[in-house]
Each structure stands twice: as C-alpha cells, then as structure tokens.
Amino acid sequence: MRPSSTYRVQVRPEFPLSSTAEIADYLADLGVSHLYSAPLLSAAPESQHGYDVVDHSRVSPALGGADGLAALKSALDEANLGLVVDIVPNHAGVAAAAENPTWWDVLKNGQKSEFSGFYDVDWSRGRILLPVLADTADALDDLRIEDGELRYFDKRYPIADGTGDGTPREVHDRQHYELINWTRGDSEINYRRFFAITDLAGLRVEDPDVFAATHAEILRWYNEGLAQGIRVDHPDGLRDPGEYFDRLRDAAPDAWIVVEKILEPGERLPAWPVAGTTGYDAMAQVNGVFVDPGTEAFFDTLDHHLTGATTSWQDLVHDAKLHVATNVLAAELARLAALVPEIEAAPKALAELAACFPVYRSYLPAGSRDLATARSEAGRRRPQMITVLDQLTARLRNPADELAIRFQQFTGAVMAKGVEDNAFYRWTRFVARNEVGNDPCKFGVTIDEFHHYAEQRLTDWPDTMTALATHDTKRGEDVRARLAVLSEVPGDWTEVVRRWVRFAPLPDPALAHLLWQVAVGAWPISRERLQAYAVKAAREAGTGTNWLSPDERFETALRQMVDRIYDDPALHREIADFASSIAPPGWSNSLGQKLVQLTMPGVPDVYQGTELWDHSLVDPDNRRPVDFGARRELLGRIDDGWLPPVDETGAAKLLVTSRVLRLRRQRPELFAGYRPVFADGRVPEHVLAFDRGGVVAVATRLPVGLSRHGGWGDTTLSLDGHSWTEVFTNTSYGGSRLAVAELLHTYPVALLVKE
To answer: Is the pTM of this model over 0.90?
Structure first.
C-alpha cells in the first residue's frame, strides 16, 4: 500500500503511543496518509530513540505496550490513516544485559545457549569481551555477587550454573564473558557492533531462525493490517542486504518498504524488492538547487583566510576514514585481518582500501567497480603496498569469501564515522551542504541537474521516500534554507565573520566558522542549545577535544566563545541583526524547498514539527518536544480562510504543507508524471517549476539575486492554455503565458491545478 505522504513521529517515553494517538486527527487534517513511527519494540531502559531493541517479542512498555499500540490503531482507523513502522534488523541493545533475554542467555551459557547464533560473535577469541570496567587497575575489586548475579555497580550479569562459588573475581573468571576496561572496546571487542557503539551488538538475521524470531511481532502487525509500511534501519550493516530484502518481501508481499540507504552522489540503489530509500538523495538535490553555485570561489577564499590553509576535502575524508578504520574500528579490522593470516601487512592494506572506498559499501557482485576504484586510489597513495593490495582485492571481489562479506560490512561503518561524524565537522567552508547523503564539494545544483534527477527518480524509483529532515540530519531544514542565503551574500558574510572571529576567537578556526554559521542559521537560539551543540561538534571534529578524552582547557575556551555571543551586547545585537537580514530570503528558500520536496516524484515525508519553521540542530536537539496544539490552532485558522503572511510564525509553511499533502492524498493522478517547465523573460533562472501531470509547482530560487534584479519584470511561464487554480491563494488564471510576478505576488511559491 503506497502512502501519498508520511509524517515522522519520534514516539518515545515522553511522547508515548497514547500521545501519538491524540494527534492522529491533526495528521489527517494536515493531509498525510500514514503515520511514520520511530521503533516501537521494547528498547533499553530510558531509551529516547528505540534503536536499541532488547526484546523483539513485545511493544515497549515505556511507550504503552500492547494496549498503547491498540489505542493507536483505533485512533489511526478513525482518522483513516495507515502506519509505517521503523525496524532495526542489524543490532540489538545489550547495555542492560538483564533486559535482553537472548543476550542474557548467551552470556550465561556461551556457545551452548539456544541463542548463541543470534549474535555475530567471534567465538575463536574465547569469552565474550564486555568493555564496561573503569580505567583503573583494581576495577574488578568492585565486583559483587548479589541475588545470584554478578554485579558491577548498577550493571547485572548472569552466573553460569555450577560456577557461583568463591570470590566475585573467581566467579567472574569462570563465566562465558569477561569484563574489561572500557577503553579497550575499540581494539579488543569480539562481537560485531553498530559502528563503534559497544552497547549495540550485531544480529545474525541472515539465519532464518533469527530473522523469524526478530521479525515475528513486526510481521504480525503487517498481517493483521496494523502496519502497511516498513522502514528498515541501517541495511549496510547486514551480511547480505539483498538476501534480507528478498526474505522480508516474501514475508510482507504488499508492504511499502523503504531503506535507510545513504547513496553517494551518482550512486544507484541496488535492484532490491523495495520502494526506495528514506530520502537523503532527494534532500541533497532539493537543498542544492536553492544554493547559488556561482559563489563557490568566495567561500574557498574565505575558508583559506580563516584557517590559514587550503584543505582538500578528498584528503580530509581519506585521513578521517583511515583513522576510524585503524583506531575506532580496530577490533573489526583485526577480525578482518585474521581471515588473511598469511599477509602480514593485511591490517594496513585493508584499512587503506576502506579509507579509499568511494561509497558506503558494495553489494557483490554489484559494486565491484567501486572496489576497483578503491584499489586504484589505495595504490596511488601507498605504492609500496601494491602487491598486497592486489592479493587482497582478488579475494575481496569474491562474493562467497568471508573476507569480502565482512569487508562490505566494515566499509559502511568507516564511511559513516569518518565522514558524517568527523569530516563534516572539520571541513566547514559552507556547512549548508555538509549533510548526510551529500558531497560538500558539490556546492550547488543547477536547474537542469535537478530536473534530470527528478526524471530519473520517477523512472527508477517512483515510490521512494523524499525528505528534508530526519533525526540524523546535521541541521534542520530551515537552518539549511537560511544558510543557503549566505551563498548569495558572500561579501556580507565575509565581512561579519572575519570581525567575529577576531572579537571572540577560538583555537580551532574551522570549528569557529562552523559555529558562526550555525548561530546565524538557527537564530534566535538559546545559550544552552548552542553550548550543547558546540561541545558535540567539537568532540566530533576531534581536533581540539574528543569524546574519549575531552580537553577541558579547549572546551572552556569554546564555552567562553559561545558565552560571549550572549554576554556582549554589541556582538549579540550584530549577530541578531545579520540573522534578521537573511531570515526573509531564508523563508523564501524554506517555502520553495518544502514545495519542491512535497511535489517532486516520490512519497514525501514531513519530519515532526517541520510544518512550521524548524531551526533544530543535530540529534538530540532535533528530538525536542513539538507543540502540536499550536499547529492545530494555526491550521484551523488557515482552514477558516486566513492567508498567513510569510513571517516568523511559519504559518505560511503550514499552509503550503497542508494544501500539497491534501492534494496528493485526494488526487494522486495529478502526480503521475514529470515535465520541466521553463520560464522566459528577464530572470528565468530564478524560477524552478515542473508539471507533475495536471499540477504545476513553481518556486523562487535565489531570492536575494532576484531582488537585486528589481524583481520578476516580464518573466513568464508557458503553460498549455487551460484554466488553472492556484491552490494557496485560491486564485484562477487562464491563458498560455502566465506572468510570474502576478502568480508569486502573495507567496514566493505557487501550486497550479488544471481546472
């Protein structure tokens, strides 16, 4: 069942299933066809996201359990809404061992456990290594035996039958697990994990029994008609994603299935039996078409001036990925190298290949060209390793080779940690483009490029999801829309940021440039939110401080810089004034990119709260509570005939969102095609328009430049001579040529429906 659109809700203990049920009628009024929920299965205690499932057999009690899900179903049925559920096949939560019955049994009984095949454990290393101890020589002295369990502070572990006599240390030494120093996790852990998170253990869903056990509850929802769609988290971690999707499709033949697959620019989604991706590829194109591609050189010059260096994005990515491969994921690298013990240099060569891999992963036999690209680049960077690289590549291209299988799982984690969680925070010339699924070197997207992407999407993946924000985006959609304005005012931005970095200096100039961009992009933003973001960004960048060993001296300087923004009246006023100057064209960009995303080929998703302006930053900032009452009240006023102005309330965005979503739900036949519509006259480059087969979307591009040209002038759109109704203002138009100035008099966007 293909949705007409979805609305993402972060169901969590503070906003459980009962609260979600209460907004079903609002979502129906908004115009969506399906609620798109965060994971609902039982997760680790106090989990705020649900991706750390501990029990696949039940709905999370913290969310309301089975009764809460039943209440949600009743509310959705009454509102005539469907449900898309988020599932997590790659990993399970193991931080609270006692909460996960299968993990508990494995820890208690080792390889003799009936669940020993559930988790991807390297049993050749002996006991399961659990990196939880404090970084002290006598940490094991804090072990105690209590209620028949081995305990370390608040952590609980099972004791195997017949091994409970003696001191806590003696008991510990007899178990199928070994508690080790937490700092040894990256280098010594012997179970596959999600990226570098030791609290998330990899599942072996390639085993049919494991698949059945971990999907039974989800598939019951599908079979009983509760859920019509499935969003699959992190398929790149799976041993064989293609085989997994074949099995999932067989189990849910009519489900709308989308996958959290991050495609690099130009990369094609494998021919899996799914509807498409969760929309990062669309996001990169939509954001990019509102950026002025002609000012890239200004930002290169500014970046060089601020940092004192010319940084190669390609070299930065390589070095960041190599560091991740050899340090953060050292345990995974060692497990790979153990498969080629005859090659002494295997660890270095495998790490180099992963650092040079151009996409997240291959799906052999598909993707062998990416392996060849990595081999070529690795040979260029490490010519002394060419012989070893050739030996390894011969095995890595064999889909049946265990080395090749695990290397494919490895490269995705290296890319994610090296690029998304490191390089994006270090290469900061223009952070509007530092987003998941995008190459920051691609400064902007031309109109012709956008039309090409859209036509290709309609042909290849017409039912894929499109998105502008997710819980994993680095900045909210309206922050990016406002930052796109900087590409139109590079001189103004250069002037103020050069003054600000002198007035409130930071030892890391690249990070400082990131923070100044974020400050004006998200303004007004509270001191607490900006402080929290600054610390997270600095630790992700890893240049002045990091997560493993925070540098208090650097972080003190960082906090002082942020404090100065709020405590110095002149600086505070100047930042506020600059943000105010770019806010109106930012609103135009926001409405434009929202209209384009909602009307382009694919199934549009609205991330919670983004029907009004949303200036969220990276997780957990983008999971903050949403005021649905205010949105409900504003939508009621709009439905009563109010045409909201384009101002700080964001109600104009709610108008655009609701009217497009309702039209897509009521008249899907209008969105079955795609044809570019080009403008004529003085400033045609400022119009992005396309016909979906009876409905024409029109958006303003580069509003500052448009203003400099004196407005639309004689710019016109050529239509087919029918009469048209503009949806947002309910105005009728006729004729084959339509004056853009008249069409966009009230709003910088328009939606024309053929009468």
So the answer is: yes
